[in-house]
Amino acid sequence: MYSTEFDYYRAATLAEAHQLLTAHPGAKLLAGGHSLIPLLKLRIASTEAVIDIGRVAELRGLTVDGDSIRIGALTTHAELAASADVTRRAQALAEAAAVTGDPQVRNRGTIGGNIAHADPASDLPIALVALNAQILVTGPRGERAIEAAAFFTGIMSTALGENEIVTAIVVPPGQRGRGSAYVKFKHPASGYAVIGAAASVTVRDGVCASAEVAVGGLVPHVVRAPSVERALLGKPPTADTVAHAAALVADDIRDEVMGDIFASGEYRKATAAVYVKRAIAAAIERASAA
Amino acid sequence: MTATTKTARVFGSGIRRREDPRLLTGTARYTDDVALPGMVYAAMLRSPHAHARITRLDTSRAKQAPGVVAVFTAADTESVLKPIPCLWLVPGSDLKLSPYRPLAKDVVRYVGDAVAVVVAETSYQAYDALELIEAEYDTLPAVTDPEKATQDAAPELHEQAPGNVAFHWVVQGGDVEAAFRSAEVVVRERIVQQRLLPTAMETHSAVAHYVPVTGELTLWNSTQNPHIVRFACSVVTGIPEDRLRVIAPEVGGGFGSKIAQYPGDFVTVFCSMKLGRPVKWTETRSENYQATTHGRDHVQDVELAATRDGQITGLRCTVWAGMGAYLSTAAPGIPTILHGLMLSGPYRIPALKEDVYGVYTNATPVEAYRGAGRPEATFMLERMINRLAAEIGIDPVDVRRKNLIPPFDDGFDVVTGLKYDSGNYVGALDKVLAHVDYRALRAEQARLRQQGRYMGIGVSTYVEICGLGPSQVAGAVGFQGGLWESAIVRFHPTGKVNVFIGASPHGQGEETTFAQIVADELGVEVTDVKVVHGDTDNTPMGWGTYGSRTTAVGGAALAVATRKIKAKAMLLTGHLLEAAVEDIEYESGRFFVKGTPDRYKTIQDIALLANVAWNLPEGMEAGLEATSFYDPPNFTYPFGAHVAVVEVEPETGRVDLKRYVAVDDCGPQINPVIVEGQVHGGVVQGIGQALWEEAVYDDSGQLLTGSLADYAIPRADQLPEIEVLSTVTPSPHHPLGVKGIGEAGTIASTCTVYNAVIDALAPLKVDAIRMPLTPERVWRALQPSREGA
Amino acid sequence: MDIKGSYTFDAPASRVWELLMDPAAIAGCIPGCRELSPLGEDRYRAVLVVPVSAITGNYTGTIAVTDKVPLQSYRLNVEGNGRGGFVRGQTAITLTDAGAQTIVAVDGQVQVGGAIARVGQRLLEGVSRMLMDQFYACLKNKAAVAPPV
Fold first, then answer.
1. The complex's ipTM?
2. In whole angstroms, how far apart are CA A276 and each of A119, A272, A285?
């Protein structure tokens, strides 16, 4: 595992990171390094320059503002999983962080790096889409916020523009009594989500007052499951309702489902409903308890 | 009796492994940790094609790259390096050897076949320069499936082997045709024992240091058998054995893959010979998956004949065993001698026949992998017994009970020609069934089925062959070496002991258990014994650590050597106490004249007196040291019975392994904690084959599971607590009665788990699924359309 | 690895065929294509940068068109090499007239070797499909725009 040669720069501030990016076209940003470094070492990726943003203070921190959570891009999976604020307000995200990779990956890997890398089988994006999160980025044209659902555009492809840097993720407050959950089928070797499902549901007056469901591992990027969501809205949260709604996930995956030697597209498509069902059921249970 | 107080025997005590502190604190020194002045680094250019003609190989740009010291191809090496010898030439098998060159010449035959080597001042520079070698290929059709490789349309790998058949070996006993003609029941199955990647934690590594002025080579090597490496290296490189020192420092696991003699080792030696500088080569993990040998890879057609009431009358099978592109060191012996001869297992089977085809394929060479041939045999038998049980409607435990060989303690002849040493198979089965309360488990299964849940119970009984083995037999079965082991026991004047052994443990814990043997035999503290191994310059010749033979053979050599020490100590005590040697007794570290135990000499007294040699009996040589070369009279045959409990989730096909219980009998246990650890590791490796592991090649011969992101080795969080129990049936011929435990777990567990999954799905009419039992495979077996498949 | 796809163009077969045979159009639509230069009749040298952000890498190779049956079908053979390994593809492309529309069916096989096959199989199918989808989506857009007179 020997990468090709590259220059290493460490940015102390966000402004410096932007200067370095401008000065070194094609440079790669390094945060926790758990996606980039393996690719470099395998020589599947190569780069002239690596800009380490791992010590940029502005990208750190996890704060609660009102009921929304602002998560600095350098927040690690382990920090997300251990955060009482995240668990209380966005449990799907805490759960997704807790089941990503292994302890080493969770201790080093960051949420910003994870979503910018945009692996189609990554856990955090699925939870973020179900929670209607916003991705805050800065770039040559200033700051902007991108809806999580619009951020992921393909396999390792995002809406990030040239020289834009993810700075934070904002998870907006859900309705009162919202519950959320993340459930995955973990690949036995890589730990990536063969299928990942996140659900965020509010139960009020005995019916599902809101429902957001997202699935990953199936098509090139995480997608919402609107048919599933519609089948839940206004219905009492019974096991039958959930099962019926979850089964509709197949309708929401219009593109051909990706497969690999471990799990074919056909299998993933046929069993996705099981994980969707479990995520919704867990979200409802938490919603009812909230 | 004497006044000596009885203390707990050190033999049989679960003391901590003395190896662990250095391993756990990261201070152990592996081959890759060797750093020598002036050392340079080698990297191999490997073929990206499974089968191709090399049309162009231009190294000129690479030679100009920064830091590059040299670039070599087969054109450079072929005048120096001979092909790598295969060391198990199974007789009567029409073996078709083909040249296994350290660097491929003209044609590459698997993805990973090395075609060039770059040596540079740093590894980074070496890998950069690899990209500058201009290699062009004309690709040829490739085949990786061992059965398909023998079919008419298959591309051929070697002109020496028409139809890709490297050998055809038959084992036969009894009248198998008659057994099938008169069979009341015949059950059949095609079993695929998929190709596996051994995945030792340490990848393969070599450091070669050739000193031109003396013509001497030191080779640090990640190997299980340094003395065989010295021999093979001498054959391949021409360096005389007396000038060749092989050191196996800490070795981070091998599981059979470090028996093999590797092209990369000899290429590294060649580089050092040419450059006169130390050269290091260490595989990266993804290189390891291509270049280090693989395991298993059988396609098996099996038929079992029996009576309606479950008495087995015959077994008939054909096996296509993938060998990969070249015959690795011990490869031909694995699907033949270590597999076919064990086909009757712990059962009375009056007639059997097996045809084994060893087949060249465009894949990485196959070599021993923990269990080596025996898991593949045990699986066939245990699978067919369950199939028979289902066919005749009798509980699989009862079918086993009906066919198990009754207990014996000094030899039992089986139909393949082997003589098992001792066994109590029913005893092990009874113990495991009692432990799990088999009837209660079946009742729980019935209750869960009522609820629509699918619990399964798998039971296996097995016997294996280890303690390889009598050298005369080794010669008769074509092994190009002996299979004895050696030990030197040296007492220093202070009573401290060095033990030098020819075997080469690499994780099995013999530094601890061998010290226990010496302590137990001679009454020294276990901490006063240091075991030295792995360096051909200071250890006696030995054949290596594999086949669960280190304690079974090397431990016997050690026991014999300690008894020689004891005999000398008796003589010396008699001289010192002025008594006849016949009147000297030994107990708990004290030598004394019969009847006067209070006047005694300790072994430490004897060690000092023997070493200073001030007062020795007439004719006695100075020193207290003994050597033994022990050649066992027979193999040893450990055995056991295992139970697995699983639950299968039909909607996703996921298998949850809920419980695993192993009863193993390796004879008396020197250190039960180490035995338990060996069983844990072995069981888990076998479970890996059942549920997760498979080396997958695509149609063009690309290895698609080329990293740990796709090749699923077992992880702790996927496994239940493994319950380890034992019975003790000593080997009648071993000086300590011990048999060996390194491979037992792997041999039994694959089929135990497989049978449990099939048992779980019995109500859904599933009777076979190809391994590994991934969720998708299980799910597919449950789809209504499967009838059409 | 088999790869199949079907793309409906809002243009007659003649227009679609013209586009599919137009090196400039193809070069403009192959994701990451930096250069497409003729090597002879119906053979081109291609230089491309795989446009998947994390896996950037330069690939050079050849693209050859064979078995042309105008307005109906042809075969496209692609070979490429780069640091990550090699890619070879053989695809049969069939055009079917459907009134004002044309359906382009792609049926091919892709062989990938080297590091990308060994360590990247998890994403191979998805990336191949994504790139193919991008290519035909781009061509569909070009087809929908009236050709320059």
1. 0.95
2. 20, 6, 14
